[in-house]
Fold each of these.
Amino acid sequence: VTAAGGEDALVDWLRGKLGVEGAVLGDDAALLDLPAGGWAATVDSQIEGIHFPSGLPPERIGRRLLAVNLSDLAAVGAEPSFALLALAAPPDYPRRPLLAALAGALTAHRTRLVGGDLARSPRLVASLTLVGRLPSGGRWLRRGQARAGDRLWVGGTLGESAAGRQVLAAGARWPEGQEVGLPAQLAASSSADTARRAVIRHLAPEPQLALGRWLGTRDRAAAIDLSDGLARDLHRLVAASGVAAEVDAAALPTPLGLPVLAALLETDPHELVLAGGEDYVLLFTLPEAEVPPAEHGCVAIGRIAAGQGVTLVDGTHRRPLEPEGWDHLG
Amino acid sequence: VTAAGGEDALVDWLRGKLGVEGAVLGDDAALLDLPAGGWAATVDSQIEGIHFPSGLPPERIGRRLLAVNLSDLAAVGAEPSFALLALAAPPDYPRRPLLAALAGALTAHRTRLVGGDLARSPRLVASLTLVGRLPSGGRWLRRGQARAGDRLWVGGTLGESAAGRQVLAAGARWPEGQEVGLPAQLAASSSADTARRAVIRHLAPEPQLALGRWLGTRDRAAAIDLSDGLARDLHRLVAASGVAAEVDAAALPTPLGLPVLAALLETDPHELVLAGGEDYVLLFTLPEAEVPPAEHGCVAIGRIAAGQGVTLVDGTHRRPLEPEGWDHLG
């Protein structure tokens, strides 16, 4: 931990909060005694004005930062072990609520915060490095392991998070410890509950660590975290595997109320589903005979074929799905 | 690696630049097979306008980012092994020169870039997580290992980097592949060479990895990286060790020309030396009989005593040295 000037007190406070030995948070680098084996490392950032609107409660930022990182570990089948935080914020930013929420979420995932860097910045930029372990008896999930004949699955509904982003942009707020507050027009509409759930889905994604661990017990599974939208991330998966994919448009799971909410937001619901992004569920493939346990809420959305590229199949209609999503369809 | 939209091409380019298997840079998390043992992890950031002036060449930012992180590993006696980068920059920022310079510097240190996160941001914020190993047969260096009777050492001169920061603030520039350019008044002065070296010392610190490794072969050594100035970092070391320190003011090593340069910059040279910061040399203690090999350029600056706090001894004059440095002296 390096901490500018008056930050020593903040580090001391955080050390107490985390309840770990001073040894871990205190030297220039965290000193760790690691067992041999498979380890996974990832880094993700949350930047004010880019990943979340200004004015978001610091607690939500702290927890979201961890959630998006955990989703990356879920996508390779790892279990979180330890984390390092780089936090740059304006001098008067309420860092303690952010750090306390992050520390609580880390503890809930039995993950240690072992290092950090605190700095000043005109806007909040928080980057979390997360290191996880391969569970004993597990296999890594890789993007490149899809084979022709596999079935293609998603771990949850699509488009809801992107809708939530637009609801927030329209003026919704979710103060810590309170319900989601909607702008008047949405609050009075039949989509109010759908809109509230979309905001929660966007701000508090639930990384699919248990699903990732289950996939790691299979003989072969390819997986990727859906962060940049189905279209783009599926292209990444098929490119890494040297295969093609066919997506059944009718099978794509969305929350029931999404089309009406999208109409109120003056947005194309297909765009939300195919390219909205930040779904933070797993996109994965399994040999045809394998079906994930029902508790993970997975839905089969297509299949893997020989060749390359992604085809969207809508009844008898077939058309290429470009990485950019719906916008760029012919 | 997650990379927004058009970033896939950049990641592909970087993968080629690094010459590593796609496996390492490509899945949602880097998959690593690590041997058991001691590992050290640290994170440090470089933020435009905070850690360096706007307009600094991207190559220098990339190399400085690595150097300040390596200095943290040096302070615990670790050898660098792998790194993860979070880079947030304006859309039109020349990221390739920064990444290429960082990649080159990583390769020179036999360190792999295994993951990253690329995002947009109005100002450049680069955070590097660095993970290193305990060399075989080595011991960790810790802040808490100083004992009364030890001698106190620094690994190089003090104050030069802080002077360089002020020379940059006065308008100096160091374009990639060229000499340091000074503002007219400094360029015409007898301090021109001192000023140029100060800028280089500030922008291109040389982390003391070899010194850290040597200290790790000793039975007992305490160490800390001098990033926030001698006064503050020495207070951290003595607090962690539960001891006091006496610093011999006359022994503090500074470049010969520093006092004259400081006068031109209208700065107190004592302030630069005691509290200027960003020296990026090691501050360490050894039992009295032990002397570091001459090649590391170390200088004994005082001794460790029972008690607490830091005393500055100037001839027969003794006064407390507060963590804030010279400014706050009585």
Amino acid sequence: MAELVARYPDRFPGFIASVTVADTDAMLEETERAMETLGAVGTQIFTNAGGRPLDLPEFRPFFRKMAEYDRPIWVHPTRSAGFADYASEDRSKYEIWWAFGWPYETSTFMARMVFSKIFDELPNLKIITHHGGGMVPFFEGRVGPGLDQLGSRTSGEDYKQLLAELKHRPIDYFRLFIADTATFGSSPATECTLAFFGEDRVVFASDAPFDPEKGPMYIRETIKVIDGLDISDAARRKLYYGNAVRLLGLSN
Amino acid sequence: MAELVARYPDRFPGFIASVTVADTDAMLEETERAMETLGAVGTQIFTNAGGRPLDLPEFRPFFRKMAEYDRPIWVHPTRSAGFADYASEDRSKYEIWWAFGWPYETSTFMARMVFSKIFDELPNLKIITHHGGGMVPFFEGRVGPGLDQLGSRTSGEDYKQLLAELKHRPIDYFRLFIADTATFGSSPATECTLAFFGEDRVVFASDAPFDPEKGPMYIRETIKVIDGLDISDAARRKLYYGNAVRLLGLSN
């Protein structure tokens, strides 16, 4: 990818590096190599490490490093049919594991990051969440007044104390994530995403080639959705490229 | 509740009966008693039976019975902290189990109903889903072109055959559910719900008293959201009571 960017700079203005979450030493090493030696403008990770959450202390150096670079981390949900939806079963049926399970993974990742206080430690951390920001924009009421009451449904954990230690309301941290427009051509979902994160924190993505046409459909439909949004042309330009140019530190 | 309705008909035009999913004989018996003897206008169940999905054959008589009565079933999500979000853990942290887990439960319930072909058997079945219809309205693109490709990510199950057996696209069945307006005062979420289910399949609900004010807030904010929707007054009346009057068979 570094070679492609060097050879065709007009077509490929930058690349991001996929780094493993399976081995935190290798993760850090590859992040440094990609960002410092190869010139990557961001990294991509998955939402869990073989079933372990990414708010564990061993992943913190990676997030610190990316905050230091001031470059974004793309986070892709991961879950397989082996994650059952019912206690009585051992597999997820009907591909529910990706249809709803992946956005659930994204949302859980976001919640774990928020309550691990990562944004208090790293206020400029830039995390790009997939599929319009998971379930968060639609369930802003649960993230808002809902999680303001964290602890009221729990015994045995001092979540009231945790809330008191956070500098802001939980929802304010959820708004610090960035979301993409990969909602598979849904105008209401894209409007919901934009309303939650605001025009400076939404970036274009289409989820190509995972559509029934194997590529062109989600690109075409996502462009149609964005062109149809009732927003200013300046805001539309931010979604299409302005926010990406700024976040990735590219020249316009 | 039957007594209250009899005593104060102007204030309580009808009641619905909560029926157990733990014992399917008792479930059916109580449904018959409530609907036929006590005059209930609907029933309420939870999304799983101690961890078992409701598309199992033993629950089908209940759904047949409610379709026969032509009265709705309210479905409330259920999940506790004991349902872990990560394979490496045994509990869900930070109350993610209700914040995101409940809408996930609702969505999974809906998918299981759809793919069990219940709507082909019982086309007039009326199921009212909570919290704006779970994740379905926001993820209409996953439910739509996504699930049109059911089977492409699975081996060992003949989902292509299942798709061929269904009379309609998966998304068309998801649109047969009814959703409530309990989005905790979120305008974008309510608009998303309305866009997906349409003005004839959305009914008022507030989720009172589970707000920080312990009651009035979600009622007040939900009314504010519905009053602010860019829809006709006729549509607004449907949301507030018209659809409920029709679904419950009440006189207006």
